[in-house]
């Protein structure tokens, strides 16, 4: 309850947060993330703060906000709506529900420069934003599939683990995974192509909730003793190390022998520890701190009327048991 109250206060105190920026004659560049409860976005916040050292010299400040939880898609829409009403110099959004945010922007017809960061809009709505800063999500999904194939060359029965059903970035990763495993672009479901099959009941939609993700994984393992692998298109279950340890305890020996495979997106500290403990076989990491920084600097350029690139990719890092100690050197 304390976490919820804290998050709601952070999201609801926009007027108080924006006032000091005005008093200091600093123009606000707003970074709106899916949920303040996700440690991944804490790193984007750090990037926003790193940018502030340069932004303030130019009369701007990066303001980080979002709903208390990523499961509250409506709250993110309301936060964006409030920011548009108050007026900011530019806004960067990681949309939890891409169609809902797009619908808001269409209704508001704002002149405020809008970019997406971390997660993008659907292709049909991308004219609503000036740029996307983040990961090539299809490529991330492809890389997860490549790591899976290294451990299971002949295919197997798998289950994809996703976040919110309307999160465009996660769905793009799932598409990349399916395309790579099937060998055919546009594959909607793996039904035996090249030996790969998605079991009934999958994908699992966790709503970016670590506890829910772990429970769903545990239930899936119980109901499907012949399952061969999980592909986590986001690392939510690993954000709760104790619960994830309990889920993987019964299959840890199989993970270490290669008889069961888990590959996951992201390389945050809990995930890296799980990798070193041999509870996940491989990680494909994004660079959220760099995303936060690049999003802030891109917003400043747009606020000043400058042109920016339509797509700004921040790169990926692949971590395995063999390179776990040095795979992130030089990355942010």
TrEMBL record:
Signal peptide span: 1-23
Keywords tagged on the record: Signal
UniProt entry tagged with the keyword Signal: yes
Biased composition (Basic and acidic residues): 175-188
Subcellular localization: Periplasm
Domain called Periplasmic binding protein: residue spans: 30-306
SUPFAM superfamilies: Periplasmic binding protein-like I
Chain intervals for the UniProt region annotation (Disordered): 174-194
Pfam family, one: Peripla_BP_4
Transmembrane segments: none
A cellular component annotation (GO) from this entry: outer membrane-bounded periplasmic space
Keyword DNA-binding: no
Single Gene Ontology MF annotation: carbohydrate binding
PANTHER family: ABC TRANSPORTER PERIPLASMIC-BINDING PROTEIN YPHF, D-XYLOSE-BINDING PERIPLASMIC PROTEIN
Family, per entry: Belongs to the bacterial solute-binding protein 2 family.
The name this protein goes by in its record: Sugar ABC transporter substrate-binding protein
Organism of this sequence: Pararhizobium mangrovi
């Amino acid at each position: 309850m304390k976490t919820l109250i804290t998050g709601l206060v952070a999201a609801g105190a926009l007027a108080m947060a924006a006032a000091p920026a005005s008093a200091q004659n600093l123009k606000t560049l707003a970074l709106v993330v899916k949920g303040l409860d996700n440690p991944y976005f804490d790193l984007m916040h750090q990037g926003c703060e790193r940018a502030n050292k340069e932004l303030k010299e130019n009369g701007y400040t990066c303001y980080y906000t979002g709903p208390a939880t990523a499961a509250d898609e409506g709250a993110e829409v309301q936060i964006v709506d409030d920011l548009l009403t108050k007026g900011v110099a530019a806004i960067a959004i990681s949309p939890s529900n891409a169609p809902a945010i797009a619908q808001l922007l269409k209704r508001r017809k704002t002149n405020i420069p809008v970019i997406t960061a971390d997660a993008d809009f659907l292709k049909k709505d991308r004219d609503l934003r000036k740029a996307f800063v983040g990961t090539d999500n299809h490529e991330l999904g492809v890389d997860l599939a490549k790591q899976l194939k290294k451990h299971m060359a002949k295919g197997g029965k798998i289950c994809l683990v996703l976040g919110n059903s309307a999160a465009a970035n996660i769905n793009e990763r799932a598409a990349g995974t399916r395309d790579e495993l099937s060998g055919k672009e546009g594959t909607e479901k793996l039904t035996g192509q090249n030996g790969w099959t998605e079991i009934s009941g999958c994908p699992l939609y966790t709503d970016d909730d670590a506890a829910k993700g772990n429970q769903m994984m545990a239930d899936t393992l119980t109901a499907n003793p012949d399952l061969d692998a999980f592909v986590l298109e986001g690392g939510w279950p690993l954000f709760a190390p104790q619960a994830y340890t309990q889920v993987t305890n019964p299959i840890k020996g199989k993970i270490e022998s290669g008889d069961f495979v888990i590959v996951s997106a992201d390389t945050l500290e809990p995930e890296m520890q799980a990798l070193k403990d041999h509870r996940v076989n491989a990680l494909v990491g994004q660079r959220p701190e760099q995303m936060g920084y690049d999003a802030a600097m891109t917003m400043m350029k747009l606020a000043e009327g400058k042109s920016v690139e339509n797509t700004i990719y921040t790169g990926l890092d692949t971590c395995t048991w063999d390179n776990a100690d040095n795979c992130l050197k030089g990355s942010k």
